[in-house]
Specification:
Beta-Lactamase, Transcription Regulator spoIIAA, 5-stranded mixed beta sheet, 56% helix, phosphoprotein, STAS_dom_sf
Amino acid sequence: MNSDHELTQLRQRVTELERSEARYRNIFESSPISLWEEDWSAVKQYLDRILATGADLDAHLRQHVDDVIACVGLVRILDVNRATLELCQAQDKDQLLRALSVVFNENTLDTFRRELVALGCGAMSYEEETVVRTLLGEDRNVMFRVVVSADCEQTWERCLVSLVDITDRKRTEEALRLSKEETIQAQRELLARLSAPVIPISDDVIVMPFIGQLDQARMQQALGVLLDEVRRLRVTTAILDITGVPEIDAEGTQGLIQAAQAVRLLGAQVVLTGIRPGIAQNLVALGSNLDELVTRGTLQTGIAFAMQNSRARR
């Protein structure tokens, strides 16, 4: 009787295990995430031999890439699911297994090395973003994760690897980043124009008034705006009015001279108005050729000079 009872229990246990395995296989195969069932026992033995020498595993694998490549070859792939075939653009499992060197290439070698270091140092899982290549040559961003089965922590005979395709997310993030950069750049250009506005006086005369501190950085911004407007409007005279500037350092003064020279290269002339005594001293101290720099005491006289020149040109 006892033997019959034990046999019945054994059969029930086998049936339960078969049902459990069937449920696992169904979940494995129907999962929308790429899943790989692998045997890493040979990899563990290889790493154990390295660790037995007392070597630092991370430093060793960095210096000996051939050992990393050897471990890649020791991984036994037991099974993959349908989502894996779709991700890798493979027709069937045989085709995928024959082309693993395409899927996991030099791009993933560093990821695999860090994975080996983590598991070799006692971790039972590892996760990292990486890039795999499909059999059709497309690069896909994936979240790679490997987990050692709880009942195989001593041998690594059963490891489950998952690849979550995050390509679309990465593309969206990149598009948002570029959009943000473009927005920031547009805001900078707008601020530059607001801090150094260009006011048309006539068809060929413009005024750029400055208010507040005028240093080299602001002069560089203003120069970009000024040259764009001189080119766009095809003006003959650009008036830089610094009546509202309390003081200018040597670099800012040098910027004014450079602006005049740059505008002259575009075939126009700069008239500098609102010069204070301190600024005049800086111009002289820099050894500037004042004969080539038209100056007027006020904006009104500068505009009058520019308009008179404009009429004379006609």
